[in-house]
Design brief:
The complex is a heterodimer. Chain A is mostly helical. Chain A is built from 19 helices and no strands. In chain A, helix 3 packs parallel to helix 5. By secondary structure, chain B is of the alpha/beta class. A five-stranded parallel beta sheet of chain B has the order 2-1-3-4-5. Chain B is globular and about 80 Å long. The chains are: A mainly alpha, B alpha/beta.
């Protein structure tokens, strides 16, 4: 079920109504059933994979407690099964293609293996989340749970199942184990956040996405048209992904759960390190804790640290998809981060705040070009384009598309600049829900809700696009 | 749910109510801005009143003047295969093409009804329709505006077909929301203004659409613009009664116009024709029997040796240099129909 459908609205109303009539244990059972229905709505076999992941990780964690001397074996069973599942569904075709291509260069013709498997939505998210549970149990950061239902609810919790944020067992599992109370103040703030998320997705992301798709469908776009398209994609991916997070957080709140904020105004970042503190936070911290630190982090000298950063970013890039451009994108950001460290040393003069923000946004956009362009030959061509070799129509068209995207994204910029200067913004407000009712605040929220619903009805893109991160 | 203050619940209700009530303001804005331009839809089952583009009188009048003997109707599948002037030359018949890129079957029906039968084209002896796979019976739903240029003020037959195909399980909710909030009407006047706002002139927008994003500027894609048939929709007998196809056949029969249906070959593989499921093969057998039993001519391009993969550009489109040879082959192969 997708969030912006009446199917989901009906599903949500029915489950919320039933949920608050039940005791805690039954609530968790309901959430598991609802999550499996949600996930299997279109493809009934997807929940089988989800269930398999849950069973393996539940028993791996239990095994670590029951047979502590075999903890490592259980850990590798969990990691192996999760990465095996991910590898088969996401990377098998990529692996076969590259082996065949490498073989062909040395004259070794491999037999053609044609295996096209459909990538189940969200598999990268829930396998990482589930795997973090067994790793945390192995490390002693979390106890192995005896309740299968609680673990199943943790792995499958539908609001964030398909596109995150990736929650940790230490944060989310305890919430399934405690009594929950309906909080109307939090529900009110969440309603606003959900509507804001829908607005970002349907009005900003989809309208910008249509422009980005058109530009990236061109054989030879001119410089200004291309970069207007890149700008459109930068807006699309941020609005789209953060919209999913906002809706997930808002919906989860209605069931009494707190999900972490995944974005902290990333386009206000002043440098590469700052950007990664603000963008897809749950994934960045996952890679930090489960890849970068186990590799040695910054503990083994500068060169090793630089190597660890590059490995982490390359793997993070590959996580996004089975294509070399994602690896390149990860590598690009790894290099940016290393350069950022050099530039942030006291001996290097750095420009002031707004210029750094603008500069980082441009660097981020270059990254988005690498991320969006899956054909490497085209990417090379795009990067060689010169602003001096353009036609008057190309320049005017680029400016027009740029302004059009800018116009659709005005609310996003206002929201983020407001949050940066005055804070908290809509996304952060639900973490500060006040029990006392302040009517001027309620009136503002009500007006914003009404205006955004009107805007969604009238300005939503005619072309509905999938959430981008569903593909990962 | 206990220990909840009344004020908190009221504040929650206020926010939810505002989300539902405030958008009603769109009605007042519409009345002030777009009131006069609104027309009742020719598809009242799926649409509320909205501004509409006028019927394409210029095209209708050009056809009346030309008085062709044969008409080719279809989307880009027809457009990339038949050059009407060349077909006229090689067949010795006057042929005209009514192509509309991305057009659905309902569009073709309205072309036949309003541009041919209702347009006084007494010269027309036959109409050729190009289609893909199950397109004739499953591609029913369309957004109204795409039909504006070929629709009259009332299209009760088409509306009845659409009524049988509601838009999913919440179609009535969608319809009620459209009627209550009138957001389609708002979109109709607001969207063009928004698109124009950052442009110095309408000419620039036209140039962006027609030159920057022209079809020949796009990358060649192997993927077709029409998805392959869904197995669940390949039950011909269940689908045909709910489709526009019977309307086309009845209209042509009543007007003494012969119909030819040409199923185009979709993009082949390097090894040969595209793979075809058992369900689709069965569907096509039923379609052929249905059409021929009603006096229509049917031909399937599937497996045509003149259409290997090398003859294709992107998707299911033939390369532009294939248009003339295809037209010539068409004249020879279907000489009996063009007689």
């Amino acid at each position: 079920v997708i969030f912006h459908s009446l199917d989901f609205f009906a599903f949500f109303i029915a489950t919320v109504a039933a949920y608050w009539l039940l005791p805690r244990r039954a609530q968790n059972v309901l959430l598991v059933i609802a999550s499996y229905v949600f996930y299997g709505w279109v493809h009934a076999w997807w929940p089988v994979l989800l269930c398999a992941t849950t069973c393996v990780d539940y028993w791996a964690a239990r095994g670590m407690t029951i047979a502590p001397h075999r903890r490592k074996l259980w850990l590798w069973l969990s990691i192996g099964s999760n990465l095996g599942l991910l590898g088969f569904y996401k990377y098998f075709g990529f692996f076969v293609e590259n082996v065949a291509a490498a073989g062909a260069t040395i004259g070794w013709n491999t037999p053609e293996i044609a295996l096209r498997v459909m990538l189940p939505a969200g598999i990268s998210f829930y396998t990482f989340q589930s795997m973090s549970y067994t790793i945390d149990v192995y490390r002693g950061h979390a106890p192995a749970r005896t309740s299968f239902i609680d673990v199943a609810a943790f792995v499958s919790f539908f609001p964030h199942l398909v596109a995150g944020p990736i929650m940790r067992a230490t944060n989310l599992l305890p919430q399934f184990e405690q009594e929950r109370r309906f909080d109307p103040a939090a529900a009110r703030d969440s309603a606003l956040l959900v509507i804001w998320g829908l607005f970002k997705k349907l009005v900003i992301a989809d309208n910008a996405g249509v422009i980005a798709n058109k530009v990236f469908a061109l054989q030879s776009p001119e410089f200004f048209v291309l970069w207007a398209g890149v700008f459109a994609f930068a807006i699309q991916i941020y609005a789209d992904f953060s919209a999913y997070t906002d809706i997930a957080r808002g919906v989860a709140k209605w069931y009494g759960f707190d999900l972490i904020s995944n974005f902290e105004r990333p386009y206000m970042a002043t440098g590469p390190a700052d950007f990664w503190r603000r963008w897809n936070i749950s994934l960045s911290t996952w890679f930090r804790d489960y890849v970068y630190i186990p590799l040695g982090g910054s503990r083994r000298g500068r060169w090793r640290e630089a190597g660890n950063i590059m490995i982490t970013f390359l793997v993070s890039g590959l996580w996004h998809g089975a294509s070399w451009n994602y690896v390149l994108w990860g590598g690009y950001h790894g290099v940016l981060l290393l350069l950022g460290r050099v530039c942030s040393s006291p001996r290097v003069l750095t420009p002031s705040g707004p210029i750094r923000v603008a500069g980082m946004f441009v660097l981020t956009c270059i990254g988005w070009l690498i991320f969006r362009e899956t054909e490497l030959a085209q990417l090379q061509r795009h990067l060689m384009l010169s602003p001096w070799e353009t036609t008057p129509l190309g320049r005017s068209a680029g400016l027009y598309l740029f302004l059009l995207v800018g116009m659709y994204s005005i609310p996003l910029w206002i929201h983020d600049i407001w949050g940066e200067l005055r804070g908290p913004n809509l996304s952060e407000a639900i973490d500060h829900a006040e029990p006392a009712v302040r009517w001027p605040r309620v009136a503002t929220q009500a007006a914003l809700c009404g205006l955004m619903v009107a805007a969604i009805l009238t300005l939503r893109s005619q072309t509905a696009l999938d959430f981008i991160y569903f593909a990962f | 749910v206990s220990g909840v203050s009344r004020g908190q619940v009221l504040s929650l209700c206020a926010v939810v109510a505002a989300a539902a009530v405030l958008p009603l303001g769109l009605r007042a804005v519409n009345a002030a801005i777009a009131g006069a331009a609104v027309h009742a839809s020719y598809l009242p089952t799926i649409e509320t009143p909205r501004p509409r583009q006028p019927f394409d009188d210029a095209a209708a009048s050009a056809l009346r003047e030309a008085q062709p003997e044969f008409l080719i109707i279809g989307d880009s599948m027809a457009g990339v295969r038949i050059d009407p002037r060349h077909l006229s030359r090689v067949s010795g018949r006057s042929v005209a093409g009514l192509y509309q890129q991305g057009s659905p079957v309902a569009f073709w029906y309205l072309q036949l009804k309003n541009m041919v039968v209702g347009n006084g084209l007494t010269s027309v002896r036959g109409v050729v329709l190009f289609f893909r796979d199950d397109q004739l019976t499953t591609q029913v739903h369309v957004n109204g505006p795409i039909l504006d240029r070929v629709a009259r003020d009332q299209e009760p037959e088409l509306d009845r077909v659409f009524a049988a195909h509601r838009l999913g399980r919440f179609s009535d909710v969608h319809r009620a929301a459209r009627a209550v909030y009138q957001f389609d009407l708002t979109r109709a006047w607001l969207e063009p203004r928004l698109l124009r706002a950052p442009a110095p002139s309408q000419q620039l927008i036209d140039a962006v659409n027609n030159e920057i994003f022209a079809l020949d500027k796009l990358r060649p894609f192997a993927a077709a613009d029409l998805p392959h048939a869904e197995e669940a929709l390949l039950d011909f007998d269940a689908q045909v009664g709910r489709s526009v196809l019977p309307l086309i056949l009845e209209l042509a029969d009543a007007s003494n116009i012969r119909l030819a249906f040409i199923r185009v070959q979709r993009r082949p593989t390097p090894a040969g024709p595209p793979p075809q499921t058992e369900g689709l093969t069965k569907y096509l057998d039923r379609l052929r029997a249905y059409l021929t039993a009603r006096g229509a001519y049917y031909h399937d391009d599937y497996g045509d040796p003149h259409q290997p993969l090398a003859a294709y550009a992107d998707g299911d489109h033939l390369r532009s240099d294939q248009r003339l040879p295809y037209s010539e082959r068409f004249a020879k192969q279907h000489a009996a129909f063009l007689r």
